[in-house]
Amino acid sequence: MLLQGFQMPEDDKNRTDFSNPPANEADAVGHTRPAPRILRGFRVYEGWLSAQEQVGLVADLRDILREAPLFSPRTPSGATMSVRMTSAGQWGWMSDLQGYRYAPRHPQGSDWPPIPPVLTALWAELVPQARPPETCLLNYYGPEAKMGMHQDRDEGDLSQPVVSVSLGDEALFRIGNLERGGRTESLWLRSGDVVVMEGAARLRYHGVDRIAAGTSLLLKQPGRINLTMRVVTPHRAVQERGLGNSA
Ligand code: SIN
Ligand code: FE2
Questions:
Q1: Percent of the chain at pLDDT exceeding 70
Q2: Do 141 and 170 form a contact (C-beta atoms < 8 A)?
């Protein structure tokens, strides 16, 4: 039943072949973590991950993709999204004609693979007050893919941040307002950049207008991976109320 509404091309695995270029030598010497730039309440860290860390992370993602291949979600209105997706963690995001939601298993029926430790460490460093991440969405953008303006509001505890990691080709990322429409600001997200969406900005509309294919050599093929870690379940107090637990 979970398979309903998904297109899972047979050749998906073959088309998702990320390379493993040698890490930049200078990287081994040391990498300075950047200070954030604040844009409409989003914390933007340019070049948070070193080249070496990015290469290691791509290797982790390759393992995830073997266990949990990319699929092409369909929106509730029936359109096929241009971004292909999968997830790691206890939950994974999915969408089909029944709507957007988090599911405990991949559409193929297997558990989602664990979130790579380098990502949970990044979360702990950047959002130390937050609950642990329960999912890491992996979005794969081919050169023509984009993502319309949307809010991230399928999670059960919107007080918790979303932490986004970009890998591969550059993406033109647009940040809007708390309601649809109005003036927006755009910035290019590059490989190794990290964005924290939190607090009042957590519900800002945002999207990806386009990918600049060929601007990074991290992935063997042109394209971009965006990872977003999130907390999915409601806060415990809300869960208990929901279950009618008066204790
Ligand atoms: C998202 O909004 O889920 C993805 C953002 C991005 O690709 O940078
Ligand atoms: Fe989003």
A1: 86
A2: no
Q: How far apart are CA 154 and CA 158, in angstroms?
A: 9
139 within ligand 1 shell (Cβ under 6 A): yes
User: Could you tell me if 18 and 61 are in contact, meaning their C-beta atoms sit under 8 angstroms apart?
Assistant: yes
Q: Where do the domains of the chain lie?
A: 32-241
Count of alpha carbons within 13 Å of 90, Cβ hemisphere only? Answer: 7
Q: How many residues does the chain have?
A: 247
Q: Which of 138, 140, 178, 168 is nearest to 42 (CA)?
A: 178
Which residue's alpha carbon is nearest to atom 8 within ligand 1?
226
Atom of ligand 1 nearest to the CA of 224: 7
Task: Look up tokens 């130390």; give the residue.
Answer: 128
Residues 175 and 229: their CA atoms lie apart, in Å, by: 18
Query: Tens of pLDDT along 123-166?
Result: 999 999 999 999 999 999 999 999 999 999 999 999 999 999 99
Instruction: Give yes or no for residue 164 CB within 6 A of ligand 1.
Output: yes
CATH code reported for the domain at 32-241: 2.60.120.590
What confidence tens digit (pLDDT) does each residue in 75-95 have? 999 999 999 999 999 999 999
Residue 8 Cα to chain centre, angstroms:
20
The predicted model scores a pTM of 0.87
